[in-house]
């Protein structure tokens, strides 16, 4: 096996205050780049481009560094770190946002050095699609680019979100976002419409119902891992992205077989992430646990087809 | 391959009047035994035990017979056939019942002859759990018994529904029924609770999100087939049951590999059923189409796991 490829993530690092039916945290580490990096760093080296305020607790940076995450692109700006306060009800499907303080994140402008630009694998976490496009235009022939977005941008800048979809190799969306962007309530039709609109491939996350990969060549479905110790669903999508792109970067592969196993890796990492508040379980897990969940997911769908008629 | 085994189904034959966003039918063939038989008869011989009134249209019986279905157990009682009138809204998740006329079905008492009692495979469709138990007690060492139920019986006779669960090899439930019966909102926990309560195995149907098989030994998930021509979801569960048990009866197998492929057969038959009103598409489909959908479902989940760490 050749050395794993480097992954660049551009996203948010935040302090989250969250209440779920299973507990409460105040100002815990959060943000898309945090979840993604902790997840992907189990597979391949990660460089993080994000911004925090001068109040950001050092232990979080030290945790990133213990996980081998390159934080040279983690800018420290004068002011307060991005803060989010949210709450999940019994069904845990949707976060109810109580408060968003963008703080230094409001003026975030990703600064990429030459090393960042050469990263073969790129995750554009949920930020303004104009910033996502700016990052994309600076990249030097990456092997694979993956984008995320959210309803906020779909409602405000649909054209730019579509432009990102056309420019990246794979767009990651949850079910609701895919339906909203496609203007279609039937999920399989929504996926088709996004491809017709120019997307190369989409991954649609369905939470406890798994995720589907859809391109012109491939249609693939992964079930969710049956988590018993569900604690906080925050960061599940970014953790999925970390396992997905991490696995591909580890082997430098983007073929169909690798994409399928990468979906299982993403699913495994998301299942670990939601077993704690913050990316705590992600930071602490190990290859044994990850491998066990991926094998378990594989065994839940695998069989050898025999002829019937 | 040895000859396919016979399947006994005990359930309803009805005349359905249905409105969906895709159309309307009046007094079309319906009922659990109708959907199940049309589905299973593509795989193995089926004997139907049900009751109709003396107004039941002959062409429906002729259609059953053209499909090789043994209708010797289809009792014709004096009076009107069971009628159901329902409506589905845009999301198609739930039927809204407008009218139920039980008619001759109100006094349905399954009459099994010796041939019926010897059937190696048995489907107890959604009828009073007391009747399901009565049928079970008459069967002569069947290889595999599968039961269905509905919220109506879970609310009124939960103890009898549990008794059926303990007596059959596999209980088929939809997600809502499984949660209601287990008294648990988390699906994986609900499945565990049903096993703790004595079920040998459960299949939980999740509609467009597929189905899961759960026993002490096996945990297996099948995605739904992405249907583009969705017309009427009525009968999807019974059609699933028909493909599932049909495949097992075709090969006389009940091992884990066969159960997994049987889940795909069930899924394929459900996807065909919902592309028309009534079991019309089920009656008209052929081995080629069924095989194509099963292969397609297999390819949506199949990959060969390679070592990562």
Write a structural description.
2 copies of one chain form a homodimer. Chain A has 309 residues and is α/β, with parallel strands linked by helices. In chain A, helix 4 packs parallel to helix 6, helix 7 packs across helix 8 and helix 9 (236-251) packs antiparallel against helix 10 (256-273). The mean pLDDT of chain A is 95. Helices cover 39% and strands 24% of the residues of chain A. The first copy, chain A, has helices at 32-40, 58-66, 114-117, 129-138, 151-156, 158-167, 175-182, 187-196, 236-251, 256-273, 280-284, 287-301; strands at 7-10, 14-20, 23-30, 46-53, 70-77, 83-88, 95-101, 121-124, 144-147, 170-174, 201-205, 211-215, 219-222. In chain A, a hairpin with a 6-residue loop joins strand 6 and strand 7. At the A-B interface, helix 8, strand 13, helix 10 and helix 12 of A face helix 8, strand 13, helix 10 and helix 12 of B.
Spatial sequence of strands, sheet with the most strands of chain A: 5-4-1-8-9-10-11-12-13
SS content category of chain A: alpha/beta
Query: In oligomeric terms, what are we looking at?
Result: homodimer
Name the shape of chain A in a single word.
Answer: globular
Strand content range of chain A? 15-25%
Let me know the average pLDDT of chain A. Answer: 95
Please trace the helix and strand order of chain A, writing H or E for each element. Answer: EEEHEHEEEHEHEHHEHHEEEHHHH
* Helical run tally of chain A: 12
Low-confidence stretches of chain A: none
Amino- and carboxy-terminal Cα gap of chain A: 42 Å
Task: Summarize the largest interface: chains and residue counts.
Answer: A-B, 45 and 45 residues
Helix content of chain A: 25-40%
Give the tally of β-strands of chain A: 13
| Main beta-sheet strand count, sense and barrel state of chain A | 9 strands, mixed
Q: Please compute the radius of gyration of chain A using only Cα atoms.
A: 18 Å
């Amino acid at each position: 096996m050749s050395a794993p490829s480097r992954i660049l993530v551009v996203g948010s690092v935040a302090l989250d205050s969250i209440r779920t039916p299973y507990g409460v945290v105040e100002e815990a580490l959060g943000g898309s780049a945090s979840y993604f990096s902790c997840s992907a760093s189990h597979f391949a080296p990660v460089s993080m481009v994000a911004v925090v305020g001068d109040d950001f607790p050092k232990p979080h940076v030290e945790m990133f560094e213990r996980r081998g995450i390159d934080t040279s692109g983690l800018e420290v700006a004068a002011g307060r770190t991005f803060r989010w306060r949210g709450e999940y009800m019994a069904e845990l499907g949707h976060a109810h946002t109580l408060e968003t303080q963008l703080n230094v994140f409001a003026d975030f402008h990703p600064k990429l050095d030459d090393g960042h630009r050469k990263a073969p694998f790129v995750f554009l976490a949920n930020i303004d699609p104009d910033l996502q496009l700016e990052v994309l235009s600076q990249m030097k022939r990456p092997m694979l680019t993956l984008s995320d977005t959210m309803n906020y941008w779909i409602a405000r800048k649909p054209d730019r979100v579509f432009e990102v979809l056309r420019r990246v190799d794979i767009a990651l969306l949850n079910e609701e976002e895919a339906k909203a962007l496609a203007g279609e309530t039937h999920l399989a039709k929504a996926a088709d419409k996004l491809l017709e609109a120019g997307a190369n491939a989409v991954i649609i996350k369905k939470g406890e119902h798994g995720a589907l990969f859809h391109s012109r060549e491939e249609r693939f479905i992964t079930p969710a891992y049956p988590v018993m110790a569900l604690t906080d669903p925050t960061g599940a999508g970014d953790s999925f992205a970390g396992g997905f792109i991490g696995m591909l970067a580890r082997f430098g592969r983007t073929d169909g077989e690798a994409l399928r196993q990468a979906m299982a890796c993403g699913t495994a990492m998301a299942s670990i992430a939601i077993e704690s508040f913050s990316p705590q379980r992600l930071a602490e897990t190990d290859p044994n646990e990850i491998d066990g969940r991926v094998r378990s997911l594989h065994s839940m769908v695998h069989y050898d087809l025999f002829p019937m008629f």
